[in-house]
Request: fold
Amino acid sequence: MARFWANAILWLSRARVTVTGGEKLSPDRSYIYMANHQSNADIPVLLGRLPVQFRWLAKAELFKIPIFGRAMRGVGYISIDRSNRKSAFQSLARAAATIRNGTSVLIFPEGTRSRDGRLLPFKKGGFVLAVDSGVPIVPVIIRGTRNIIPKGHFVIRSAPITMQILDPVETADYTRKTKDALLARIRTILVDHLDVDPLENEPQEAS
Reply:
């Protein structure tokens, strides 16, 4: 249902989505996907075109929205309570157990949308989750969505979009004490690839 909803939005907005790198994912593994965040349009792009099943890791406030919050709980999205440090770490422990049981999750490590396309500072919670669960992180680069729905605007425009799935990064050798090194590594990967056009060097996949 979520994929149908997302693809319907992309069709209505006449968005042309090209995906590369899907062959890097193993169907037998769970992952933590980390994507840059430029626009509300990132959500239907990921739901509709990321070629795997996953659940969102979302702030607890979203689960309080009538109907929407209930739907999120119903499909297994994972709530993170950031109201205080203790609650946040309890939420992350529950999320790590869910991932170890075979569920992949998706996180926007910036925590909110960027207005100019440049990466904002990363939140550390996703990296605590990564080292606690021990599953690989898959960096994902999204380009073009800021042109469809810029932050602070509600008019939907048509624009080409690319989603580039990068190589998984193993996390087994990291701990909570070294999570900052993992954060820096993932951030460097995203920054480096945001300056590269994936269509110059990679074959196009059907959108």
Summary: Strands lie at 16-20, 32-35, 55-59, 78-80, 105-107, 137-143, 160-165. The chain has one domain: 2-198. Residues 30 and 101 are 9 Å apart (CA to CA). Residues 85-100 form the longest helix (16 residues).
